[in-house]
Specification:
The complex is a heterodimer. Helices cover about 75% and strands about 0% of the residues of chain A. Chain A is built from 9 helices and no strands. Chain B has 3 domains: about 30 residues; about 90 residues, Nucleic acid-binding proteins (OB fold (Dihydrolipoamide Acetyltransferase, E2P)), CATH 2.40.50; about 40 residues. Chain B is built from 5 helices and 6 strands. In chain B, strands 1-3-4-6-5 form a 5-stranded mixed β-barrel. Chain B is elongated and about 80 Å long. The chains are: A mainly alpha, B alpha+beta. At the A-B interface, helix 3, helix 6 and helix 8 of A face helix 1, strand 6, helix 4 and helix 5 of B.
Chain lengths: ~250, ~170
Amino acid sequence: MMKWTFFHKLGSPKWFYDISGKWLPWLQITSLLSLVVALIWGLAFTPPDYLQGNSYRIIFIHVPASFLAQAIYMMMATAAAVLLIWRIKLADMALKVMAPIGASFCILSLATGAIWGQPTWGTWWVWDARLTSMLILLFLYIGIIALRGAIQTSEVAAKACAILSLVGVVNIPIIKYSVNWWNTLHQGATLKLTEKPSMAPEMLWPLLLSILGFYLFFTLVMFLRLRVEILSREKKTRWVKALVGE
Amino acid sequence: MNAVRKQRLILVLLLLLGVGAAVTLMLFALQENINHYFSPAQMESGEAPTGQRVRGGGLVVPGSVERDTESLQVSFRISDGAGEVTVLYDGILPDLFVEGSGIVATGMLNKEGVFTASEVLAKHDENYMPPEVQKAIDDAHPGYSSPSYSSPALQTSARELEVQQLESLNNGG
């Protein structure tokens, strides 16, 4: 029989607060460094595309933002499952603080996509499967944020948000495979799990670095927000009172 | 894992399974509406409705673009390897409109199978490379963008060649 105690230790707000505090400076340095290097490299030093010229350079923001918008949703759905099954408070706090970050990346993805679409496709927006499913993702994020705000009792709000997050997770494979399942104006995936990326190496490296930078930046912002959330929800506990010196 | 948690886990999995099944069925039912455009093969086989606004998309057949010298009128053929359809358009084509690359046109298909477009959008693919690499590929496979070839089969193989070339570059780099 497996021991589940480690899982509960992981879910202890105080334990997380202590650990994340040690991580913060490293996250700050690495995210700043990777983002600055990746963006300068991608925007100024990589060669232009043979077909799109310089306009393709928005890929160094568009693709990482889209990746994050979907990855954060997957993390929220995981947190939702953990909350529903194990009733771990920290999972609900994580779910709450991740939603606005995910929504921001989703807006960034849709906005950069529209800006890219205008010069290349000739239109800001089309209702194809990829763009529409991404818009639905934004509505899911907004829905989860709004649902929490609409319910007064925090336990009920936590449960409702968790269920909505879980239900919405079906949209993630639809976004990913929309370009394969249906005819879309949006092109297929450049970075694939099973095949070689269809991008020249001198463009691929800054893109991968930018994705890494976006992930680190997200982790940093998430930790900062989660730490504030922990302090505000645990303000009656002895360790928080000791921490703030009351 | 205790009994209560196991029960909750099963509930969560059932919820995901139920929603997943419902959405899958819905997407299958709406398959045709979700497709953004009809392919040339679908337009040739009569799957696409005539006399109403639809979208059609495919690769511009190299050498098929004919521009009117007096006006903006342009005609070209689009192909998906399985069918070909003539498109008429009166307007400014997007910058990325290149022979051999993809487009999506909005307009009307008539009974003779000619597509009159009111809007043409360029669809680019997922391959990105510097101009020198593209030039190297063109030099190695001169047939690809020359007007002499028009067979859809050749078009597919030229694309595959291009992708292979890019992959070998990635391997080497």
